[in-house]
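== Folding task for one protein ==

=== Format: two labelled lines per protein ===

==== Paired sequence and structure tokens ====
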Amino acid sequence: MIERRGDDGWVEQWVFGATGARMIRGTASTPRKNAHGQFLNSMGCKAELPVPLFIEHRREEPPVGEVVALRRSWASVTFEARLHRTAEADAIWREITAGSLRFVSTGMCDAVRQIMSDGTPIYQNWRLRELSLVKEPANSDCGFVVFRPPVRLAA
């Protein structure tokens, strides 16, 4: 895993050489209050790449892909992921390209929670355990698009 830091605080991580024909790119988290009534601090996200990519947080089933790149800033945690070549992932890829599957949701653990003065929990530090493709996200900012990495031609 490779990591790079910017002067304004952002941090990028990626798996060297991770690419594929079926890639997605999007937003995994923002500091917006989610449907569970909580906030996630984007800069508090930690991860060991690759992170498994599931469907609807069904961790009892094999992952359909893996997160291979993350970038965290004060505004968001963004990601790139690739789908595996399996029958289940093939079916999911068809849903993605048809536009019926467009959102993601974070599965976290090792979270350090504080309570704001209004009683709202905010997770200052948390580890991304998994990312799930979902039909209805807890945070409406968290969607994705198909990403086609540039083709590198031999010299």
Q: What stands out?
A: Residues 2-147 form one domain. The first strand starts at residue 2 and ends at 5. The radius of gyration is 16 Å. Residues 28 and 76 are 7 Å apart (CA to CA).
